[in-house]
Design a protein that fits this description.
Blueprint lengths: L5 E2 L10 H24 L1 H21 L9 H30 L4 H36 E10 L5 E10 L4 E2 L13 H6 L2 H8 L4 E8 L4 E8 L4 E8 L7 E3 L8 H4 L1 E3 L2 E5 L5 E4 L4 E5 L9 H12 L8 H14 L1 H9 L3 E8 L5 E7 L4 E5 H4 L3 E3 L2 E9 L3 E9 L1 H12 L7 E7 L7 E7 L2 E5 L2 E5 L1 H32 L3 H14 L4 H15 L1 H6 L1 H8 L3 H17 L3 H14 L4 H13 L3 H13 L5 H8 L7
Parallel strand pairs: 1-4, 2-10, 13-19
Antiparallel strand pairs: 2-5, 3-4, 3-6, 6-7, 8-9, 10-11, 11-12, 13-16, 14-15, 14-17, 17-18, 18-22, 19-20, 20-21
Helix pairs in contact: 1-2, 1-3, 2-3, 3-4, 13-14, 13-15, 14-15, 15-18, 17-18, 18-19, 19-20, 20-21
């Protein structure tokens, strides 16, 4: 059906690599040796050397791995070609030797030699690069990048021959390459797998790749055999290319816009029983057919496809076991029930308790939609498709996607039906309780009609490294909150002049985090209030060193010493401290206001006004600042 169609072709970038560097190095080495032979032994010896080298090199290349080493015409021709290349390169060596010995130099011949020697490889690589660029440009303008996921119910046991998006007028098609059917594992095989592998194969995607769709694609061609239904489908559907939202590809940034091409949103293609097709992206359905008419195929072709599907399995490669599997699937009703669930909206909400910190949910539902949701949003009664996978993401220094809850949606639906007596209008609540904040104690309860049951058909996957990062961040947050609470309590005690109790709080903060810079700012203030400025000056180097790593605390420390010097009318020293405070935290307006006040006291109204205006711009407000601005830097009271 698509034999006469062309598809996207990946182009190979042109590089100057080792495959060319080696022969060039050999030729240059031979030319260097030839120069010595020409100069000391004459031109005849140099020519003989080049012929011998050509013979030896090509003999090794031509007869490597061969038992017969008879001299052939092809071999002699190869030696002649290599000798010709070497001797042509050696013309430059010859011209140099002639010039050194006789002073004669044929400029025209030498220029022609240079043009040929460098012009041919440069032209060759220019042609290669040009061809590569044109091919890349052609592919980028003719094909659209599309992420594509293809799914079907694993129990349908499909053998897919072909899926392609085609532009019938241009005779171009997408580059979808389908492998053999996915392995259908037996219950015993699944039970031997760990949970992550088992769940992957139970909900696996048969295709998940970036494809290249021709611009203006107008048809979707599909052909497949459904073993369970014993039906073959060979269909051609109109494809609404105009409904795609197309945008410029942004990456890689080091490639020109033309070559990056264009892309669209991820497409999802679902194949159902009775030849049903659903093609959609995250905001619109492009094709939705509940059934298609099967195509008649010969018994021979039918049996061939069944055998190919059977041979793709391990346990079910046995013909009898495969026939038993087919009969079991046909009588189970699982395919029909899962199809019903995939298309059924149910009024449900979810409450989650026991989680610490700021979390949100990554939800995959039975309709194959994927979306993010705040926990509070999930607590609202709403018609939704049932969830099949819920990821919990903690917001910390970055997003910690640390836990995934994989739900047996079929069992969940059956449990809901029992609780609601099959009444689809009864609201359902899922209650997830992480007792003690640990996933090991998770309880999943379904509540409806004033009744509840404990649901157990789920599994948890935990990313241990992400979980540990989350735990560490929570501990840091707890520690930070504890430090802030103690810090506030200490300053409340300072304002009440209960300095000893405030010092106790300060010591507690340092015990929690010895590097917490503001604890040392608190300590230096307590030292000032209790023992005076001299005691502070004596420990200045200590306090500066303890806050050096924390710019905001260090700025506070310099500001503190600036205020001490100001009280003692040591204005020049005070000026230096305020400047250091500003350098460490330029956004804090009070430091600039303090600097303006010192300039005013030093009878420098111009700089005082400049600093005052910067303080106002930073958002600081005070009576001192108002006085400085009103007096244009001549007074601060």
């Amino acid at each position: 059906m698509t034999k006469n169609y062309s598809s996207y072709k990946k182009t190979k970038e042109v590089y100057f690599g080792g495959d060319l560097a080696f022969p060039i190095a050999v030729i240059l080495l031979a030319a260097l040796i030839t120069y010595g032979l020409f100069y000391f032994f004459g031109f005849t010896v140099g020519i003989i050397f080049n012929v011998v080298i050509s013979w030896c090199v090509y003999f090794f290349m031509y007869y490597f791995g061969k038992s017969n080493t008879g001299i052939t015409f092809d071999f002699l021709l190869g030696v002649a070609c290599i000798s010709g290349v070497l001797l042509f390169v050696d013309y430059g060596v010859y011209a140099l030797v002639v010039y050194q010995k006789t002073g004669m130099f044929n400029k025209l011949y030498f220029q022609l030699w240079l043009c040929v020697l460098f012009g041919i490889p440069i032209s060759y690589y220019a042609f290669r690069h040009g061809s590569y660029y044109l091919a890349e440009k052609s592919m980028a303008t003719e094909y659209l990048r599309v992420p594509l996921k293809i799914r079907h119910d694993r129990e349908l046991l499909m053998y897919i021959d072909n899926i392609q998006f085609v532009n019938t007028s241009r005779r171009t098609m997408s580059d979808i390459k389908l492998e053999k059917p996915n392995c259908f594992y037996s219950e015993s095989e699944l039970n031997k797998m760990d949970s992550s592998n088992r769940n992957y194969y139970l909900v696996e995607i048969i295709y998940n790749e970036m494809i290249h769709m021709p611009f203006g694609a107008d048809s979707l061609l599909m052909s497949w055999y459904s073993v369970i239904e014993d039906k073959y489908y060979d269909i051609e559907l109109p494809f609404p290319f105009e409904k795609l939202t197309i945008e410029q590809e942004k990456y890689p940034t080091n490639v020109s816009k033309v070559l990056r091409g264009k892309k669209t949103k991820r497409l999802n293609l679902h194949i159902h029983a009775n030849g049903g097709i659903r093609l959609f992206n995250d905001d619109k359905v492009l094709i939705d057919l509940k059934e298609n008419i099967p195509t008649v195929i010969s018994e021979e072709v039918r049996n061939e496809k069944i055998d190919l599907h059977r041979q793709s399995h391990d346990y079910y490669s046995n013909r009898k076991a495969f026939l038993n599997l087919i009969e079991k699937i046909k009588t189970s009703g699982g395919i029909e029930e899962r199809f019903l669930i995939q298309n059924k909206l149910i009024p449900w909400r979810m409450t989650i308790s026991g989680l610490r910190g700021n979390n949100y949910l990554d939800v995959d539902d039975v309709s194959f939609s994927e979306y993010k949701s705040e926990i509070a949003e999930m607590e609202i009664d709403k018609l939704r498709f049932l969830p099949k996978q819920i990821g919990i993401v903690y917001r910390g220094n970055y997003l910690y996607d640390w836990l995934t809850l994989i739900i047996n949606s079929q069992k969940l639906f059956q449990s809901i039906q029992k609780l609601t007596d099959g009444n689809d209008e009864v609201a359902v609540r899922f209650d997830l309780n992480f007792e003690k904040g640990d996933e090991k104690d998770l309880q999943f309860r379904i509540i409806a009609n004033d009744k509840s049951i404990l649901f157990g058909d789920w599994e948890i996957q935990v990313k241990k490294d992400r979980k540990q990062d989350m735990v560490d961040h929570l501990l840091d947050s707890d520690e930070d909150q504890q430090k802030r609470s103690l810090y506030k309590e200490a300053w409340d005690l300072v304002f009440d002049k209960q300095y000893d109790q405030a010092q106790e709080k300060c010591d507690m903060i340092k015990a929690i985090d010895p590097r917490y810079g503001f604890a040392y700012f608190l300590e230096v203030r307590l030292l000032w209030y209790k023992e005076g400025s001299k005691a502070c000056y004596a420990k200045k180097d200590y306090f500066i060193a303890k806050t050096q790593h924390e710019p905001a605390a260090l700025a506070h420390m310099h500001n503190n010493y600036g205020c001490l010097y100001d009280q003692e009318s040591r204005y020049e020293e005070s000026l230096t401290e305020f400047e250091k405070a500003i350098a460490n935290n330029p956004k804090e307006g009070i430091y600039t206001c303090n600097l303006a006040e010192i300039y005013c006291k030093l009878n420098n109204p111009k700089k005082a006004l400049e600093a005052a205006e910067k303080s106002k711009k930073a958002g600081h407000q005070s009576t001192i600042l108002n006085a400085l601005l009103e007096s244009k830097g001549t007074r601060y009271v």
